[in-house]
## 1
Amino acid sequence: MDARRESEATPMKNRTTVERKSERELVVTRTFNGPARIVFEAWTKPELFKQWWVPKSMGMSLLSCDMDVRVGGKYRLQFAHGDSQSAFFGTYKEVAPHSRLVWTNEESDEGSVTTVTFEEKGGKTLLVMHELYPSKDALDAAGTGAADAMVETFAQLDELLVTLGASSGRRDK
Amino acid sequence: MVQYTQARLDDSFAALSDATRRGVLEQVGRSDASITDLAEKFHMTLTGMKKHVGVLEEAGLVTTEKVGRVRTCKLGPRRFEEETAWLERYRQLWDARFDELDKVVEELKRKEKVNGRKKRE
């Protein structure tokens, strides 16, 4: 029943990259087709943040989202997945409007420090998210169920293909 | 989006369809190697090895770096190590998030336009 507006509203899709910089660091990058102040706003206003942080494919929902975006301010996200709940919380360490955000994650002693930078160029914004974990184990653990996924090369590819096949099949129905 | 992933898989399969390239990948997985080393190890000409490495590089399975006159080959961002599966899952999660964030950005841009607050500097 949705109005078909995708063609006019959807800009060219930009590429998301993830790189493991070191045993303790992950870097995610993505360009957005908008100025830095807008992208920054979407990261720092709870009502906007809520609209994108938990995409449907995650299979969970966001129950609440509190963000006190200033140095020393706290954030807390409460999630529900099935019958269980979990929370994601920590403290903002640096807040430089439209350019830089740093926060800690405090769910455990092994929490990460996340630095997000927003770099505007020609009306677009390059976003770089850097995550630093206290140890290699902490980073590894962050990949949920990572151990289960440690299978042989081709098994991984097979699985991906099955997933892709399933999703394109669904569209045909 | 799906097409993009499929294109990458096609590249990977094509790159891995050749026994020499699989051997090179395995070798480079053990330690970085120069193209010359690899050519010797696999009894090939330098040109032949450069082609194979080029295909692997295209697929993101290896990267090369030239230091002085030696081009060194190492595992690329898409190396098939144990961590690859979850890194890819992690990428997909962020990609899904960012697709949603794209929509938020578009919406905010549209609102700004409507409100006529789009001032020139």
## 2
Amino acid sequence: MVGSILKTLKRQTLQNRLYIIIGLVILILVFGLVNFWFGMRVMSGIRAYVGGEGLWSKAQKEAVSHLVRYSESRDESDYQKFVEFTEVQLGDKQARLEMDKPEPNDAVIREGFIKGGNHPDDVDDLIFLYRRFKNVSYMTSAIQTWTEGDQEIENLLRVGEHIHNLITNPIGATDPGVRAARTAELSLQAEEVYKTDTKLTVLENRFSATLNEGARGITSTLVRMTIIITCLLGLLSLTVAIMIARAILRLDRLKTEFVSLASHQLRTPLTAMNWSSETLLSPKTSGNLSPTQKKYVETLHTGGQRMADMIGDLLSVSSLDLGTYKPEETDVDIGEILATVLKDEQTTIQQKDITLTTNIDQNVPILWLDKQLVTVVLQNLVSNSVKYTPAGGQVTIGISLKKGHALVSVTDTGIGIPADEQPQVFTKIFRAKNAKKFSFDEGTGLGLYIAKAMVHRLGGSIWFDSVENKGSSFFVKLPVNKGHYGKSDEQKHG
Amino acid sequence: MENQTNKNTVKKILIVEDDSALRDILADNLATEGYTVLKAKSGAEGLELALSEHPDLILLDIILPDEDGIGLLKKIRVDETWGKHAKVVMLSNLSDNQSVAASLELGARSFLVKSDWKIQDVLGVIHDELKDWPTTN
């Protein structure tokens, strides 16, 4: 049974499975609430009956006491008190008899219970418990006791009436013989009252004990139900949590797979296109092209190159966001990396007639970091400064040792970053307005986001100073942990 | 298997690359530079050509339809007489550290991420690799 349910559940889509489980959770919650409501009403009903029994017993004792006193004092007011107190039992009896009818009248029941001294707010609970549980063992037994009690009350009323008749009968009241006989009879009746009272005390105790036993049974059932419901809800919540966690992990894996697929599937044809346009533009073949053809091929080449850069940036972002990039520490000669990066920018630097100054402090040791990350950070900062510095400007790069850290600074006399846009500089897909205007078709708006994420991966920090139309300075602080002044591994082996 | 020969040169380069456009543009450029070019589109073809032709340099793609380039490189290295010291440059679009490390451990000369490189720079690396290197026949 459970096995087949699980099999059916496994065949469903993740979404359907979640709906089914959430449906079950709601069902159990509703069941729990109904269970709680039902339990509370039962407990409240029992409390009302136990309370009602207290009122019933108290009134019964008062009635007995007044009747006995009446038999001695012969004061009519004592008899009236007796009658008055028995109204409580008669009221409850009226309610009981009405509830036993096939078509009971709720107004009659209510009137009876209120006569019995019960609080009007408790009446509904009293009726509820009687109707729902009259066939349940403890309630059947309590009702039986109540009926027996009512029979004893009838007996008491008969005795009371007899005593009243003996006292109020005017015939022979002055005859000493008759009076003596009546006095003897009154004593006998008083004895009878006491006997009835004793019987009633036993019945009253039995009634309370039975109901209390029922209350204990119900409490224990309620506790068990609550434990079961809590366990079920906990189990289902755990299942939902596990399903969601699995779905997230699966999604992560799918994303990673997609990134890998995109890297191969998009990059391969793009590389073929870029290499083809580059071949067409190479001195050996470009002579065969007309100026118009050459212009179009150049457009193709620039577009292709830009697209390759964008894909590279997007892949870096995905890999950083997913945390799939696993840094591998090696010896990193930061000056050497800078030289490679500058080599790539050489053509642009020359074309734009930019004055490049590098200040490399020889005290900076060989660092122990992921080389690829350091390279990409430097590439991004240097290419930004070259890109956004107008022709004839200056770019100054410094590498120094500051407070146990390697500090890289890239300063330019470029367009700068507008003050109001500076807080967004390191966010994803951000390009300042003046940057878009200055170089519309370059840049993905991902470079500095990538740089910041990578610097954090390297355990360093990145910040900048910038004034619009004056220039920018970017600073990167990298840890020197495990750094040394020996030759780097590559230099040693190379 | 295709052969693209330039009679003026003797240096032989094997390209193992499943993408035909990339394979051809690379082969055309190398042929223009005067190399003899051998082309393979799968790992199996690459291994067969490598072991039979003993090229001076192998350009090896990492992702191939039948097996990955690193697996192929391992098989080439098994050949004691020639394969153990054959010159290999890895070409890939995946620059994960594991692939780079595995290739370099297996004695690959360089690991080039294709999309990061201009064809002229790739040719430059190949020229440098084959400079002062005795030709196999």
